[in-house]
Amino acid sequence: MTAVADRPARSTASLRHRLAERGVDSSLWLMVPALVFALALFVYPFSYGIGLTFQPSVATQEQWGGGILANYVAFFRDPFVFDSIWITMRLALPAALFNVLASIPVAMVLRRRFRFKRFMTSVLVLPITLGTVLTAQGLLIFAGRQGWLNRFLIATGLVDQPVQLVNNYTGVMFSLIITGFPFAFLLVSSYLSGIDPSLDSAARTLGAGWWQRFRRITLPLLAPGLATTFILTFVLAFSVFPSARLVGDAMGSTRVMSLMAFRAFGEQNDYAMASTIALMMGVVELIVVAVVLAWRSLLYKGSTGGKG
Amino acid sequence: MSALETPTTMSDAPQGSPPRARAAAGRPPGERSLAASPSTWFVWAGMAAFLVFLLGIIVAVVVDSFGRQWFDTWLPLEWTTEWYASSWDRFDLTHVVGVTVGVALAVVVLSVLIGVPAAYLLARRNFPGKRLVNVLFLLPILMPPITFGIPLATVMYSFGLGRSVIAVILVNLVPSVPFVILTMTPFIEQINPAIESAARMCGAGMRQVFTRILAPLLVPGILAASILVLVRTVGMFELTFLVSGPQSDTLVVAIYRAMTSAGGGEARQLVSAMAVMYTATMLVMLVAALRFVNPTQLVAQVKEARDD
């Protein structure tokens, strides 16, 4: 590629070579299948969906007015739909925050060497395979009114009568933590392993205590990675759908956005409204992601580790 | 980049050997263990609680699937295996499992065929619009599945593909291809470009370089990516649910439908039996995956690729 530069050819080869110098050559054909795929299955449907949001059904137009913007008017005016944003946030933000914060100490403990390290890591990662549907079924049985958890709580005298742990907010929260924590843990521990341990040793040599080392060395280096982990965990928790329906209270305290979008899609066959809710879901999520990213850009991202 | 990073990740230096800690003059000996001990116990207690929940959920489903008359007791009154046979017949699981396996294999093969060449270009070359292409492949992973799933499903239905197996395969490709690209990029970066140059010097064309040089070297990476895509596809609920119908349901969707079907859902034990079969399959795949990839390392590498 570099040898071509000093050849003063002016034929058709010249263009090809000049293009090749900029990285455009026949091997770019390798990208074609992936691009076709992305355009056909992602870009086109997505733009089609955006277009669809401006073609409200007659019923929506009559009920909410607003011409071609009727879907958006309905979204913002209809409290049943609009409140689902807060309901989703109230589930996804605490769940993502908990998962990230809880995985820091766990990752730090599991970073040391001990006998069952690999086993422990595998067990913590295991719930990834369970999936939300099975977790829901398990929670319904385990934490239900006659489940082992309630039996145990009653047997030990902690409570007098069964606690309602499923079919409400708590149930969905449990499910989000069980499926989300392993993911956050995986990411945080991989960021943690990117921090040079000699920094910690150096701080210890200088007499820094446990808390000082964490506060001044580990945390600043880990923070960008934590932000990334938070984003990815939040994305997972934000699109919660099966568990909100199965272990939640689908029409009440866990009426999340994805449920509303699916209700419009599958039950009311109002594709335009469904696309609107889905699109707004993406917008809300992107706002949160953008805020976290903006905060992350203020953090230290040196070469010393953290891999943020 | 990742090749350079690997030694740091692997070294995992021992955390302060006791002799050196004692040698730090002036510090009370054993300062570390005193300060860290309560918090370490706290972390272990938290992990234990998580594991109890996890185990409770899994065991509850398994016990439920083998039990009969399990209401107000710690364990079922009778044990039976008939739930498995009846749920196999009741939900026509031969068909469902066939669809699940077929869809998963098709998605794996297609996403590897589409994704690996693209990953090669993204890892090796610079070309105009590379950043744009990167963003294009990142979006489907960052967005909530419902956001692009609903417009995509609408397009599928308008093309008359709704409820068909083809639609299920196509929909599942959307997050899988980017996932293959992200997973494969670090694997490709680790291959020495000199090997390819040598093959070129010896007169190999692009296709020969790919089939004779890269493909054999990439087998571990392709295997890892394939297994991860397989696990993801089998576990993917949202997207499949949007386009599948009775004849094209995968196992997860079938479980969900059984849990939510009109009239309070199917008998709980039938669903449990189905869920146990699902988890067993996933577990086998996860164990296979863990043999080929170290999860912590993989995420670190994926992360680095993501940041570019």
TrEMBL record, chain A:
Q: Cite the entry's keywords alphabetically.
A: Cell membrane, Membrane, Transmembrane, Transmembrane helix, Transport
The answer to keyword ATP-binding applying to this record is no
List GO terms (cellular component aspect): plasma membrane
Membrane-related topology note: Multi-pass membrane protein
Q: Where in the cell is it found?
A: Cell membrane
Name where it mostly resides: membrane
Quick check: keyword Translocase in the entry?
A: no
Question: Where exactly are the transmembrane stretches of this chain?
Answer: 28-47, 85-110, 122-143, 172-192, 221-241, 271-295
* Matching CDD domains: TM_PBP2
The record places domain ABC transmembrane type-1 at 85-292
Q: What sections of the sequence does the record tag as coiled-coil? A: none
Superkingdom of this entry's organism?
A: Bacteria
Q: Which GO terms describe its biological process?
A: transmembrane transport
The UniProt family comment states:
Belongs to the binding-protein-dependent transport system permease family. CysTW subfamily.
For this protein, the record's PANTHER family field holds: INNER MEMBRANE ABC TRANSPORTER PERMEASE PROTEIN YDCU-RELATED (PTHR42929:SF1), INNER MEMBRANE ABC TRANSPORTER PERMEASE PROTEIN YDCU-RELATED-RELATED (PTHR42929)
Spell out the protein name for this chain.
Answer: Putative spermidine/putrescine transport system permease protein
Query: Per the UniProt entry, what species is this protein from, by scientific name?
Result: Krasilnikoviella flava
Automatic annotation (TrEMBL), chain B:
List, alphabetically, the Gene3D superfamilies matched: MetI-like (1.10.3720.10)
Q: Spell out the protein name for this chain.
A: Putative spermidine/putrescine transport system permease protein
Q: Where is this region: Disordered?
A: 1-32
Q: What is its main location?
A: membrane
Polar residues bias (residue ranges): 1-12
Residues forming the ABC transmembrane type-1 domain are: 97-289
Species assigned in the record = Krasilnikoviella flava
Q: Which GO terms describe its cellular component?
A: plasma membrane
Give the UniProt family note. Belongs to the binding-protein-dependent transport system permease family.
Transmembrane segment boundaries: 41-63, 96-123, 135-159, 165-188, 209-231, 270-293
Bilayer topology reads: Multi-pass membrane protein
Could you tell me where this protein is found in the cell? Cell inner membrane; Cell membrane
Q: Which GO terms describe its biological process?
A: transmembrane transport
- Residue ranges, compositional bias (Low complexity): 13-28
Keywords linked to the UniProt accession: Cell inner membrane, Cell membrane, Membrane, Transmembrane, Transmembrane helix, Transport
